[in-house]
């Protein structure tokens, strides 16, 4: 993959660049938000690894301007923040995935492989659709069969995560990291409870189910 790495912490840059090149990727590294945006607009990268806290333009602003310019390059956010609102904000702006620092390099590689498989169309339109479900991330609204659903911020974050990964099984670990920022054993139950609450609003009132449990693995959203 042709990758753009936007990160201002020199040690992380060296470590990631070395590891990614060893894995066979071409990496352009920049330590500044404005440089990242300029490079992203003038090149076709397969994916951008984007740190949130960057000098000149932060990662959110870079992503906002990139999407504003109609560019659909998949973006993986790197964030040290562990608040669900921050990740929801990233997704709202069109981020495809994120990793909470510190992270395992193997996980970064796995996430990048997933991003490379993303169909481009799901990235290009602002709306995220799965069957008769439609999510409008800019207005924070969710519709199923034309009917508005009222979700809590955690239910919304879970739904958006699953919808942006439509058809892919998400493990409880990945879901727990996405919603709470970290995985603890007891969060397996919290994930299941959150899924149940989401299902009650998303699937129970309708004829067909979109949210499916994959025994022993996790959850998937698919029509
Ligand atoms: Ca930083």
What does this structure look like?
The protein has two domains: 2-117, Response regulator (Rossmann fold); 128-221, Arc Repressor Mutant, subunit A. It has nine helices and twelve strands. 43% of the residues lie in helices and 22% in strands. The mean pLDDT is 86. The protein starts with a strand and ends with a strand. It has helices at residues 10-22, 33-42, 59-68, 84-92, 105-117, 120-124, 153-164, 172-180, 187-202; strands at residues 2-6, 26-30, 47-51, 75-79, 97-100, 128-130, 133-136, 141-144, 147-149, 170-171, 211-214, 218-221. The chain is an alpha/beta fold and 223 residues long. Strands 2-1-3-4-5 form a five-stranded parallel sheet, with helices on both faces. It has a four-stranded antiparallel sheet with strand order 6-7-8-9, covered by helices on one side. It has a three-stranded antiparallel sheet with strand order 10-12-11. Strand 6 and strand 7 form a beta hairpin. The chain is globular, with a radius of gyration of 17 Å. The structure holds calcium ion (CA). Calcium ion binds at residues 8-9, 51, 53-54.
């Amino acid at each position: 993959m042709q990758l753009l790495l936007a990160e201002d912490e020199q040690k992380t840059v060296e470590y990631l660049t070395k590891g990614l090149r060893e894995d066979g990727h071409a990496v352009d590294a920049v330590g500044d938000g404005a440089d990242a945006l300029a490079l992203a607009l003038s090149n076709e990268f397969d994916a951008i690894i984007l740190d949130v806290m960057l000098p000149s333009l932060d990662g959110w602003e870079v992503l906002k301007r990139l999407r504003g310019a109609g560019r659909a390059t998949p973006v993986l956010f790197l964030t040290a923040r562990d608040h669900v609102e921050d990740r929801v904000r990233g997704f709202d702006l069109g981020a495809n995935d994120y990793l909470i620092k510190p992270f395992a390099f193997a996980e970064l590689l796995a996430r990048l492989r997933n991003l490379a498989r993303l169909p481009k169309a799901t990235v290009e339109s602002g709306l995220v659709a799965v069957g008769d479900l439609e999510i409008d991330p800019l207005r924070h609204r969710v519709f199923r069969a034309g009917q508005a659903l009222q979700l809590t911020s955690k239910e919304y974050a879970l739904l958006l995560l699953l919808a942006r990964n439509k058809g892919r099984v998400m493990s409880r670990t990945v879901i727990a990291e996405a919603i709470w920022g970290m995985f603890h054993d007891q969060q397996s139950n919290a994930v299941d409870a959150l899924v149940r609450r989401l299902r009650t609003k998303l699937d129970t009132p309708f004829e067909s189910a979109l949210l499916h449990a994959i025994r022993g693995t996790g959850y998937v959203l698919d029509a």
